[in-house]
Design brief:
The structure is a single chain. By secondary structure, this protein is α/β, with parallel strands linked by helices. It contains 15 helices and 8 strands. The two termini are 16 Å apart. The N terminus is likely disordered.
Length: 361
Amino acid sequence: MTTPGPSNGSSSTPEQIAARGNRKPVNLALQGGGAHGAFGWGVLDRLLEDDRLAIDAVSATSAGAVNAIAMAYGTSLGGPAGARAKLAELWREISSASSLWSPVLTSPFDQWLALNHIHNDFSPGYMYFQALTQLFSPYALNPFDFNPLKDLLTRLVDFDRLRQCPNATRLFLCATNVRNGKIRVFENHEITSDAVLASACLPYIFKAVEIDGEAYWDGGFMGNPAIFPLIYKGASRDVIVVHINPLTRPDIPKTAPAIFDRMNEISFNSSLMREMRAIAFVTRLLDEGSLDGTRYAKMLIHSIRNDAEMAQHSVASKFSADWDFLCHLRDQGRLAAAAWLEQDFEKVGRESSTDIIETYM
C-alpha cells in the first residue's frame, strides 16, 4: 500500500479551509452496526461539542453512513451546532419510527438486560426472524421493498443541497457491488438517498439497491469502513476510527447465538484489519527509510472504541430502536470520545495515538 500522502489541504474547498480556523483537521472512519450506530452518534456529538477538531472528510458504512449524512448536512446548515442538532433529530426519528424501522424488535426484557449490562444470547423474536430469512429471501418476504429509512432520509436531508454545498463535510460512503464483489465508494456529488440505502442494505432483509444499473449490498462486506479514500483524497494525515463492532472479546463463545454474534463481528471487522496491516507495512518502510518521505506520508491513526461495552450487546439488539437503549449507547459514545480527547488530543497532527500493530495485527 505504497500510496501518496494527503495533499496538505488542496483537496478541501476554500470554504472548508477558511471554516477550520485554529481547529486541527482530521478524517473520520465510521463503522456500521445497525442501532449500535447510536454509539457513533455519541462520539460525533462529543467531538463536535468540543470544537477543537475540524472534520475534513468522512469514510463511512451502513449506520456510519447514516450518521455521516446527518452530520454533513447539518454542517452545511449550521456548522458543528447544526450537525449535532441534525444527528439528534435523526436518531429521535429512528426511535419514533421503531415499529416500522426494525424487522425484528427486541423485547422489553432484552432491553432491560442490555441497559443493565447483562449479555443475552437468546432473543426469541430475533431467532425466529433469523430462521425465517434462511428460508425466504427479501424478494419473497418484502416484495414491495418497503424500507422506512428511505422516507426518513428524504424528510431529514436535502440531498440536492448536500451535493452542491461547499461547506458540507466531504463524504465517502461504502457499498458492495453484488455482481463483482468490489467496493463502491460514493462521494458528495453522487450521493442520493439510494446511495445511503445501498451502504446499509443487509441482503437478508432488503432487496439489493440498484444504482445506474448496478446492484449493491451493505458496504460492511468490503469496507467497514474503507480507509483508502482518506489516504488518497483526505487533506489530513490523521484518521480517527470510530469502532462499533468489538475487536476483542474476553470469552470464547459457546452458544449458537454467541458464536453467530462473534462471526458477525469478525467478518465485519476483517476489511478494516487488512487495511490497517497495509498501513502498518508502509509505516515501517517509512521509518526504515525504504520509502521517500517527501513522496509518501505516514498516516496517523487514532481510534475511539469501547469493546467492553459493545460486547455486552448481541446482534439482536442492533435491530432495536428503543429510545432509552439508543440514549444509553449515545452516552457511552460521548464518554469514549471524551476520554480520547483528554488522553490523546495533543497527539493529533504529531503521532498516532493507536498502536496499529498491537490493535490490528
